[in-house]
Design goal:
Elements (H helix, E strand, L loop, with lengths): L23 H18 L5 H15 L5 H16 L3 H5 L5 H18 L4 H21 L3 H17 L3 H18 L2 H14 L6 H8 L6 E3 L7 E15 L2 E17 L5 E7 L31 E4 L5 E5 L1 H18 L7 H15 L2 H15 L7 E3 L4 E9 L2 E18 L10 E10 L1 H5 L4 E12 L6 E13 L7 E14 L3
Antiparallel strand pairs: 1-7, 2-3, 2-13, 3-4, 4-5, 5-6, 8-9, 9-10, 10-11, 11-12, 12-13
Helix pairs in contact: 1-2, 2-3, 2-5, 3-5, 5-6, 6-7, 7-8, 8-9, 11-12, 11-13
Length: 502
């Protein structure tokens, strides 16, 4: 069972260790060496994109050498990233880091080139900062989103638009309060007072900060009998053999929670057959189905047992569900089979993949892992807002569900939110979980593999009933140096529960 651990201080691991005293040329050589090493070992690895962005960021951070050539070189690196086929697969809705870098490039050009284009560059920086804030929010990186809102305010102030700058800074302070970013709020209040021509002494700041919220999530398992409608949607983008394809899977269930004779709970699901679409064949706007297929999306809902204290107690009827879903998926695969000379081979491959993906063993493992993420790991936990904690646990690898390795989980209580859209009060907690596989454990199984996973969970802290879960992730695996030996895939999985009135 997953157990909550101690506070962890998070850090960003750079792709190249750089000394601030080294000359620009030497540091550029280190990035070039890192790129060459990655491309030699695994030419299709998305790690190349991160190194290019790190190099561009370094070029903007350093003050060595003439400004304009450095900015031009940084822009060239960003252009190469944005022109890649990998970036839009990894981040279908947009990658926040390049948008952030675009903001910094506009600022750098404003400083380097000066008038007459300075104002235009600053206005472009505002647009880029707002875009980056949206993308950071979309990927659950709220601190980075708040920073970009602050940057927007500062640049607006540089442009002389005091009213818009003040509004943006006040919005940033509202976010500081929402997410509990106390240190940021104090500095932002100081800046706001200075813009308003008011004193920034400690007495004034203390008065503004005295009602700053101190939130703590106390999570208790206290289920009650009831019904809920569960909707699942899984959108996936894939890059394989040079082709980008898209898939969308959907499912719908009626869930019933009932008390059992031992003080625990029985959870049963009744599927809506008309809403089940496993997303095996690509969507029409993706690559031709004759070239690619997907494994069935993670849409299964297995009946399960839960102990009185919230611990997972096993599944019920997994073999029967496996047989039912396999038959249903096989029928859909045959109904939407591709045309062409490879149709028979691809259809058989899809059927074989389905048999494995929907096997009883994998359904049970998925049900146990999902229940731990959504419920049992939080039972009895107390989390201070904005503090990142960590624990280690064996979990399946994204994209390789039969492979289980030790993984690091970093999690936090982000904010209070309404349990359902339109609710008058924020009665639920929003929890964030980031998962990173242990590199050594992965290397023992597959040579070239990388994944990034962020999960957002909205639950009632008084019961641990989960109202929604959202996963954003990508994974990359390669077994050789050929184009067809590597696959890159992203996934956006959403699960929503609509509870019936008691």
């Amino acid at each position: 069972m997953l157990r909550l651990g101690a506070l962890v201080v998070l850090s960003v691991i750079s792709c190249a260790a750089l000394s601030s005293e080294s000359p620009t040329t030497a540091q550029a050589d280190e990035f070039a060496t890192t790129l060459a090493d990655i491309e030699r070992a695994d030419p299709h690895s998305p790690a190349v994109l991160s190194v290019r962005l790190s190099y561009a960021e370094f070029l903007l951070d350093t003050d060595e050498g003439p400004c304009q050539p450095r900015v031009a070189r940084a822009q060239a690196e960003l252009d190469r990233v944005e022109a890649s086929t990998q970036a839009p697969v990894m981040f279908p809705n947009g990658w926040a880091r390049p948008a952030d870098l675009e903001y910094r490039l506009h600022l750098a050009r404003a400083d380097c080139f000066g008038d007459p284009g300075r104002a235009a560059e600053l206005r472009a920086a505002v647009t880029a900062a707002r875009h980056a804030a949206e993308l950071y929010t979309d990927s659950f990186d709220y601190r980075a989103a708040v920073i970009m809102h602050f940057n927007t305010a500062v640049v607006l102030h540089q442009l002389g638009d005091t009213a818009a700058a003040t509004t943006a800074l006040e919005s940033t302070l509202a976010m500081d309060r929402e997410f509990g970013f106390q240190d940021d709020a104090e500095e932002n209040y100081r800046l706001l007072l200075s813009w308003q021509g008011q004193a920034t002494d400690s007495t004034r700041l203390s008065a503004l900060m005295q009602d700053f919220p101190k939130r703590r999530a106390i999570l208790k398992f206290a289920w009650h009998a009831g019904d809920a409608h569960i909707s699942l949607e899984d959108s996936r983008d894939s890059l394989w053999n040079g082709l980008v394809s898209r898939s969308r899977g959907t499912a719908s269930y009626e869930r019933h929670i009932a008390a059992d004779a031992n003080g625990g709970w029985m959870v049963s699901y009744r599927p809506d057959p008309g809403q089940y679409q496993p997303g095996v064949w690509p969507m029409p706007d993706g690559a031709p189905s004759a070239n690619v297929l997907f494994s069935p999306a993670r849409l299964a809902a297995v009946n399960l047992k839960v102990k009185a204290g919230g611990e997972f107690d096993g599944t019920i009827g997994a073999d029967a569900l496996s047989a039912q879903l396999t038959a249903q998926t096989d029928s859909l695969i045959r109904a939407h089979a591709p045309a062409g000379s490879d149709a028979e081979k691809l259809t058989q491959q899809a059927l074989d993949t389905t048999e494995v993906a929907l096997s009883a063993g994998l359904l049970v493992a998925q049900a146990a892992e999902d229940y731990q993420f959504e419920t049992s790991m939080w039972a009895g936990a107390t989390l201070d807002q904005g503090v990142w904690y960590e624990l280690s646990a064996p979990l399946s690898l994204r994209g390789l569900p039969r492979v289980v390795v030790q993984q690091q989980l970093e999690f936090a209580f982000a904010r209070m939110v309404p349990c359902v859209a339109g609710a008058p009060q924020p009665g639920c907690v929003e929890l964030l979980v980031r998962t990173t596989p242990d590199a050594q454990a992965v290397a023992r199984v597959i040579r070239h593999y990388v994944s990034s996973s962020a999960t957002r969970i909205v639950m009632d802290p008084a019961t641990l009933l989960c109202y929604s879960r959202e996963d954003r992730l990508y994974w990359y695996a390669s077994v050789g140096k050929g184009l067809g030996d590597a696959i890159l895939q992203s996934e956006h999985l959403k699960s929503t529960a609509t509870f019936s009135s008691p």
